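Can't paste images in this forum, so I'm doing it all in text. The chain is below; anyone willing to post the predicted structure tokens underneath?
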Amino acid sequence: MEHTQNYDSLQAKIRQANSPDELRKIHDSLPDYLRSVSFTRDKTIELYQQVSQIHDALMQQALQYAESLVRETIPGEHPEFCWVVMGSGGRKEQTLWTDQDNGLIYSYPPDQNPRQVDAYMEHMARIAVDCLEQIGYPLCPGNVMATNKKWCGPEEHWITTFETWARSLTDEAVRFLLIAADFRVLRGNKAIGNRVKLSFLNLFQHEPHLLQLIAKHAALPTVPTGLFGQIFTEQWGIHAGMLNIKYAAYVQFVNCVRLWSLSNGIADTATLSRISRLKDSHIWRAEEAKEAEIAFTDVMYLRLMNHLNQKQDNRLHRNHINPNHLSRGDMSTLKRALKSARALQRKAKIAFNVHKG
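Text version of the structure:
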């Protein structure tokens, strides 16, 4: 009950915040809030849902503030638009600290000059990205933000860009498509985002070679385990003896489940939601889906536990865990997750004929 009250209080504070400074204080209090919760594996999904909802609320409030600043300086009719988030935010799988991964989609009003609309929206993107940075969301190292013209434009721009990437065989184009695959509307006109999403999903029905490229991507990185289940940790440097849980198991689940979802036109972005849709559509057997759900929850538990155990936003060790420091129960959880991730990758290679390419 106390936990629920604290969560509701935090959301109320976000709604009442009137400046980036106020939102920054709330953002920075998130680790302390979560550390006050009695965290067990059984609460993993509930806590991730709350973390995602809190991040959404913070970003929505910051975007609303940015929009109000722009409207105050540029009066008149404003285009219809929507903000989208990608990456872990798009999948609703953020941990305590997350960078920006966002985009801006809009429509041209029939009575306005497209160039003026473009300039207006680019201005709004700059203000919004700056506000998000002020409240605690660092700029994306890969520049996946609305300030990058790749991720800011009218519906037609987004659809044409997707089609261009789909015809390209470059690794960069595939990477961009994988990023776009996880986008969801965060704020604004959902119909605009949904139309773009539908066009994106249709690409995979008309460009079958895309699935082969994405299947090859899903086969990497390999899970760092041996034939007998032994765990291979890093050998050199500051992370010697440690395991990067993100690249040892998490991305394998994300990539493989995304692959099956795209091949079947599933619009959901959260990994567990995608698994549920694969099961409900009889694409995966119930027992396969259940095993994947359990193992993915294991990975999410280990990631969040590792973040909560860190005193601050330590980017140096954010995703690294030392297996020797785990309890016997958590060590069993880790081994089970790695085994399942490896099996899922093997299943994907067979289903999508990766070994033949």
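The chain has a mean pLDDT of 92. The first strand starts at residue 81 and ends at 85.
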